[in-house]
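Before going further, learn to read the protein records used in this course. The integers have meaning only within a learned vocabulary of local backbone shapes. To see the layout at work, look at the sequence and tokens printed below.
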Amino acid sequence: MSASPALKAALADAAREIDARFDVLLAVPDDARANLYRAMRHAAIDGGKRLRPLLVFATAQLFACDRDCAARVATALEAIHVYSLIHDDLPAMDDDDLRRGRPTVHKAFDEATAILAGDCLHALAFEILADPATHGDPFVRAELVLDLARAAGPAGMAGGQMMDLEAERAAFDLATVTRLQAMKTGALIAAAVEAGAILGRVPPEGRIALRGYARDVGLAFQIVDDLLDVEGDEALAGKKLRKDGAAGKETFVSLLGVEPARERCRMLVDQAIAHLRHYGPEADLLRDIARFVLERDH
């Protein structure tokens, strides 16, 4: 994994922050819910790139937002992301046994516990955002809740996952695959950037460049995922690869070819960085994140 020293430090800080907050939020109770909390901890703590939390932090710092407020919002975003992974791994969905090099939640526990763990992380995200501790302005909290709900629901991540299931039974063209991935992967990445701007009280018309950045980074991220599914190392990925081809799903790589897909990814990263041209050094972390998306190896 290639990353600038500043980005490596920011990723490490974000990982420590999110792990520490989940550790407190998911303390195991001494009652019959204990396994449910253990399952949530198994999925949420000590794993993943923490890209979405880092995008919240990086965008929030553009507007000098309070770090604790940003960390609460970042934790909520990551709770939604982790819930989605738990449910995506279930036998009824992608039927995966490994996630981040560890048994998936339904393998480490059981299917019923995995479903409930995902449900609880979903609920926890909105509990965090609605809490007055997240922001003193109820209108800011309401907008954070609204935007994340849209990103997670049928017009966003969950809708994209439904399209992904249908992709096994239908031949999707490039426009449809692009829409699918903009919903399934891109919506939550966009919500992370949007959340930082909401915390900064930036009006919707002032977020156009950031939305363009998030859209391009989200699509680039998915193209790299598709490339890694074809060319990647399962040991580095920590999960089974080459499943899309076996399932007959169309991807950016199957539709474009390896080198054109890689070139499109480079173009998207360049576009993402260009969207930030009106910002100065305060946006360097966002620029580094875009380059990192292109260079990552898992």
The two ends are 7 Å apart (CA to CA).
